[in-house]
């Protein structure tokens, strides 16, 4: 009986494994399948993924993205560079919610129009657009959130307490710079920060004035320039908004932030916003 059972099993296995005569051997079919793959498209998609990973890695480290680094590390050349960057931008925006934004040169000024000034006192959603680029290409990029303001809430995007603290301090410093004709000297800035108890040589990084400013300078939120003719014991510096701050925080959004702390009607906030622009050195073209 065992012999018959074994025979039946072998027959079943043989039937299962049996295939009719094929015109091509299996190895030939595999070669045909592989040869049908569009390797150029596969390579393009791999490069796109490499660009996306590299950009997100740079953003995580708060490191600017440079064109020459992309070309060097990812071996992107000629016409393929523009095509791959375009596809990577689309994936960054529609999958990860980022815009690949080219940083403006240090000489680029942001001159808001009258419409932009009025818009700054309305809802945050109306002034969340990134500023326009102008002038010569810098070849330096950062990732800027492309999410609508309605999605930029603590319930959806979680941030650490430390990040909120740094953001608040940055907005205050940028506001001071803006209202001081877009630059402020280190002694004046130090006096303002002293009032906020952000002192020199404090015990913690979040309260140490110099460490805070160095952090913002390192991450391109502030630009620090030595003031001429200050080679004495106390060297003075001029602080201005850095390229990353210009990319991530449009002037209209900064003015909206400052007006938010004042009460009053929308008309009063609009009047306050216009005064802020005039204080910053912008001319109201409607007058």
TrEMBL record:
Region Disordered: start-end pairs: 1-32, 106-136
Residues covered by the MAGE domain: 44-276
PANTHER family (UniProt xref): MELANOMA-ASSOCIATED ANTIGEN MAGE ANTIGEN, NSE3 HOMOLOG, SMC5-SMC6 COMPLEX COMPONENT
PROSITE patterns linked to this entry: MAGE
Originating gene: nse3
Any single Gene Ontology cellular-component annotation: nucleus
Protein name in UniProt: Non-structural maintenance of chromosome element 3
Listed GO biological process terms: DNA repair
Gene3D superfamilies assigned to the protein according to its UniProt record, in alphabetical order: MAGE homology domain, winged helix WH1 motif, MAGE homology domain, winged helix WH2 motif
Extent of Polar residues compositional bias: 21-32, 106-129
UniProt xrefs under Pfam families: MAGE
Database matches in InterPro entries: MAGE, MAGE_WH1, MAGE_WH2, MHD_dom
Organism, scientific name: Choanephora cucurbitarum
């Amino acid at each position: 009986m065992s012999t018959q059972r074994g025979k039946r099993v072998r027959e079943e296995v043989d039937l299962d494994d049996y295939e009719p005569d094929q015109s091509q051997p299996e190895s030939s079919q595999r070669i045909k399948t592989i040869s049908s793959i569009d390797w150029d498209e596969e390579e393009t998609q791999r490069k796109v993924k490499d660009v996306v990973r590299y950009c997100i890695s740079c953003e995580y480290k708060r490191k600017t993205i440079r064109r020459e680094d992309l070309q060097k590390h990812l071996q992107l050349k000629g016409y393929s560079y523009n095509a791959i960057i375009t596809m990577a931008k689309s994936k960054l925006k529609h999958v990860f919610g980022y815009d690949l934004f080219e940083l403006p040169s240090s000489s680029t000024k942001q001159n808001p129009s009258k419409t932009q000034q009025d818009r700054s006192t309305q809802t945050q959603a109306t002034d969340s657009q990134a500023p326009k680029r102008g002038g010569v290409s810098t070849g330096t990029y950062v990732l800027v959130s492309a999410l609508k303001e309605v999605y930029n809430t603590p319930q959806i995007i979680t941030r650490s307490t430390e990040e909120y603290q740094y953001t608040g301090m940055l907005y205050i410093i940028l506001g001071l710079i803006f209202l001081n004709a877009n630059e402020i000297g280190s002694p004046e800035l130090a006096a303002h920060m002293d009032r906020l108890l952000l002192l020199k040589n404090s015990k913690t990084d979040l309260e140490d004035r110099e460490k805070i400013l160095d952090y913002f300078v390192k991450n391109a939120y502030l630009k620090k320039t030595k003031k001429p003719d200050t080679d004495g014991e106390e060297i003075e510096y001029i602080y201005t908004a850095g390229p990353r701050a210009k990319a991530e925080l449009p002037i209209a959004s900064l003015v909206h932030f400052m007006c938010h702390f004042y009460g009053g009607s929308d008309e009063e906030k609009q009047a306050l916003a216009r005064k802020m622009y005039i204080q910053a050195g912008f001319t109201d073209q409607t007058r």
